[in-house]
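Weekly sync, protein design subgroup
Attendees: M.S., D.O., the rotation student, P.L. (late)

Item 1: inverse folding check
M.S. brought a backbone from last month's batch and wanted to see whether the design step gives back something sensible before we order anything. D.O. pointed out we never logged the input encoding, so this time it goes straight into the notes. Structure tokens as presented (377 positions):
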């Protein structure tokens, strides 16, 4: 067959005969062996790595970022370059912030008293005119609302470079007297300011005692309910941080219970309206037990009762006053027997006999002694 060679002896080169061709045909060049269509092992592994999301992100994002950071780090490694870059950025920012559109020239405050107005202007962190970027409005608002007299504040930068502050102040409604001084409280019991004397706000009611400030709303409800006795009301006192005492003029007190003091006060006002209880000589109306009210009478009323019972009166210190000897005899005379009457009747005769004895000398002794046995008999 054509294309086959006979094996020759070893070491001997066998010559392959030329293929037969047609007459007049041109010889074809020898072709390289055909390559396999599948990829190589390296190409296959690289293709699989590219299909992995992690490697694809590293090549697309991580490698460029690393190159940029490396170049930036090499550039900023020099101190002079860093200083120049920082100075340029700072100058550019200051140039933008210092534009007229961002400048604040004045501050307008509405609804504030002179003291609060002065305090707000002192709390401004910059001196006007200044850039609005230098004023932290949320921080400044929090600082202003920490003032006791300020309930709410609205801060805005208006066109024209105006910093507007609309202030809502707390309204004092009661005075709280305690061991540390006198304070003004609003309707929620929040501190408004301090005063040095009660005379500065005589139009406000007074509450006293430790813990009274935290119960200011309850005290205001009691004061509103004490309408008929409001002209006589001196204030409310918190007793033991548990309950209230309503203090009136003339040293009178209405002692209210720990729970539900308002109905107890209304009951006391009903007794005052029906019987004029508080207009009498009563020191205290004890309603700590609403089911069993107790009255504490004054000294005059107690002595009147004791006199009606035939008892000795009490002194201002509460100690019983012992009557003198003559007062005892005089007190016993109305209830005495005929013996007492005889003794009283003979007393003038004795006096007459004594005067006669002075006039007659020695006979006076007998004359004075004679009536005595008759009186005893």
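Designed sequence read out in the meeting:
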């Amino acid at each position: 067959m054509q294309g086959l060679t006979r094996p020759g002896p070893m070491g001997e080169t066998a010559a392959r005969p030329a293929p037969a061709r047609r007459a007049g045909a041109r010889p074809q060049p020898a072709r390289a062996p055909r390559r396999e269509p599948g990829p190589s092992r390296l190409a296959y592994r690289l293709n699989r790595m590219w299909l992995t999301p992690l490697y694809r992100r590293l090549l697309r994002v991580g490698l460029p970022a690393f190159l940029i950071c490396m170049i930036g780090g090499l550039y900023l490694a020099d101190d002079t370059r860093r200083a120049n870059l920082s100075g340029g950025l700072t100058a550019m920012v200051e140039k933008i912030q210092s534009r007229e559109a961002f400048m604040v020239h004045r501050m307008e405050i509405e609804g504030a008293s002179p003291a609060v107005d002065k305090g707000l202007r002192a709390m401004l962190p910059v001196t006007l005119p200044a850039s609005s970027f230098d004023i932290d409005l949320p921080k400044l608002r929090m600082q202003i609302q920490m003032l006791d007299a300020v309930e709410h504040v609205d801060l805005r930068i208006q066109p024209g470079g105006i910093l507007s502050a609309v202030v809502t102040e707390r309204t004092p409604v009661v005075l709280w007297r305690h061991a540390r001084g006198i304070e003004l409280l609003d309707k929620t019991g929040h501190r408004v300011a301090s005063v040095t004397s009660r005379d500065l706000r005589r139009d406000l009611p007074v509450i006293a005692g430790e813990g009274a400030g935290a119960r200011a709303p309850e005290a205001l409800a009691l004061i509103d309910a004490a309408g008929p006795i409001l002209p006589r009301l001196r204030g409310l006192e918190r007793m033991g941080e548990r309950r209230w005492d309503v203090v009136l003029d003339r040293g009178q007190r209405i002692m209210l219970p720990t729970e539900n003091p308002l109905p107890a006060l209304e009951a006391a006002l009903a007794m005052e309206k029906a019987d004029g209880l508080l207009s009498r000589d009563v020191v205290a109306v004890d309603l700590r037990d609403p089911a069993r009210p107790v009255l504490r009478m004054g000294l005059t009323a107690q002595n009147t009762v004791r006199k009606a019972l035939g008892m000795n009166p009490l002194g201002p210190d509460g100690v019983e006053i012992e009557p003198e000897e003559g007062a005892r005899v005089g007190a016993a005379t109305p209830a005495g027997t005929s013996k007492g009457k005889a003794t009283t009747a003979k007393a003038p005769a004795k006096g007459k006999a004594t005067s006669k004895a002075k006039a007659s000398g020695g006979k006076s002794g007998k004359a004075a002694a004679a009536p005595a046995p008759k009186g005893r008999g």
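Discussion: The longest strand covers residues 150-158. The two ends are 198 Å apart (CA to CA).
Action: P.L. to compare against the previous round before Friday.
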